[in-house]
Specification:
This protein has helices spanning 8-29, 32-39, 43-49, 53-77, 82-99, 103-113, 115-123, 132-143, 152-168, 170-177, 181-203. With 205 residues, it is mainly alpha-helical. The chain starts with 7 loop residues before the first helix and ends with a helix. Residues 8-68 form the HTH tetR-type domain.
Length: 205
């Protein structure tokens, strides 16, 4: 019997369906049958392309991460001023994670298991975030008296935590604040502007 050749269009169909299911149910709540139903194929065909849910999730995750990190590095390495970089960082990160909300929590879970292996696999040789130029730029702006004295490291941690935390704490925020999916998404859309405005106001002279 001739070996079946995998078709890229079918694989793309499966990946697109998996993204939708993972967004709705997360990695742990999703089932292979859910993904097969969303793709309009039978479960046997799904298993031919991806033998497990974990394998499928990893593929979807890697594609999303590969989309995000090069853009973040392009922002860090650009010749934009500090304020513009802060604005672009928040906008880009929130845009990608809104479409791939499983990213932050999955990273936190996996990185706690085997940090070195996971981050090496996640970033590879080209995608590792490198904020060196941005942090040097902040230090220079402080020395020139253009912004208030602040540790570049502390600003970087503030920036990252303010962007990421709401996605990680989404279930808690939704229950405690009574937010449905639309309200949570709307709040995160607002944070594209709210976070940069808050940080810039804190460092601007």
């Amino acid at each position: 019997m001739a070996k079946r050749v995998k078709d890229h269009s079918t694989e793309d169909l499966i990946l697109d369906a998996a993204r939708k299911v993972f967004v709705k149910k997360g990695m742990y709540g999703a089932r292979m049958q859910d993904i097969a139903d969303e793709a309009g194929i039978n479960k046997a065909l799904l298993h031919y392309y991806f033998t497990s849910k974990e394998m499928l999730f990893e593929k979807v995750f890697e594609e999303a991460a590969a989309h995000l990190f090069p853009k973040i590095n392009a922002i860090f390495d650009s010749d934009d001023d500090v304020y513009t970089k802060i604005e672009r960082f928040c906008d880009e990160y929130i845009t990608v994670v809104l479409e791939n909300p499983y990213l932050p929590l999955f990273v936190m879970n996996e990185v706690n298991q085997d940090p070195e292996y996971f981050l090496k696999k996640l970033w590879g040789k080209k995608n590792k975030p490198n904020p060196t130029k941005f942090m040097q730029q902040l230090d220079e702006e402080v020395k020139k008296g253009k912004i208030k004295p602040i540790s570049p490291l502390q600003l970087m941690m503030n920036l990252i935590s303010m962007v990421i935390f709401p996605f990680v704490a989404k279930p808690i925020l939704q229950v405690n604040l009574g937010l449905d999916e639309f309200q949570f998404r709307h709040a995160m859309e607002q944070r594209r502007k709210e976070i940069p405005a808050f940080i810039i106001a804190a460092i601007k002279k």
